[in-house]
Design goal:
Elements: H1 2-27, H2 34-64, H3 68-73, H4 76-105, H5 111-128, H6 130-139
Helix pairs in contact: 1-2, 1-5, 2-4, 4-5, 4-6
């Protein structure tokens, strides 16, 4: 039963994280108002919280669920997922910093800054697409060391 609960929680969290990332990509636009920037900061807070929960639930799943840590620790696709998730996390740092600066500045961010943040958000989305690919391969036994 624990395996099922952790799997459901994990997948729901992943879908929510993708929804938040999509919301940021839609909301970050040239000419944003200060109210929009404040809303993006709030959305980004959820992004960080969900990412932390995914790590907690994901590693709990790897350690305590049906397949056990040995299965995951010896799978190349598991480590590829971890690396990609870490890459997404690293890419998300700059937009978070920019969002906070935009809010503190109290005016609309300039178009070049918005464009650079949007590029990073697109890169996160592209990397995000690799996560289910690696998960599907791993679930079918590919990548065993």
């Amino acid at each position: 039963m624990l395996d099922l609960v952790l799997a459901i929680a994990y997948h729901l969290l992943i879908f929510c994280l993708f929804g938040i990332l999509s919301s940021e990509l839609i909301a970050v636009r040239p000419g944003m108002s200060q109210a929009a920037v404040s809303q993006i900061v709030a959305i980004d807070l959820w992004y960080g919280a969900l990412a932390a929960l995914i790590l907690i639930v994901g590693f709990s799943r790897a350690v305590f669920a049906a397949k056990g840590w040995d299965y995951y620790a010896n799978n190349e696709f598991f480590w590829a997922k971890i690396i990609v998730f870490a890459g997404i996390g690293l890419l998300s740092v700059w937009p978070t910093v920019r969002f906070i600066r935009w809010r503190r500045a109290g005016d609309s961010p300039d178009e070049a800054d918005v464009t650079s943040v949007r590029r990073l958000l697109y890169a996160e989305v592209i990397l995000f697409a690799l996560l289910p690919v690696f998960a599907a391969a791993m679930a079918r036994g590919y990548g065993e060391l």
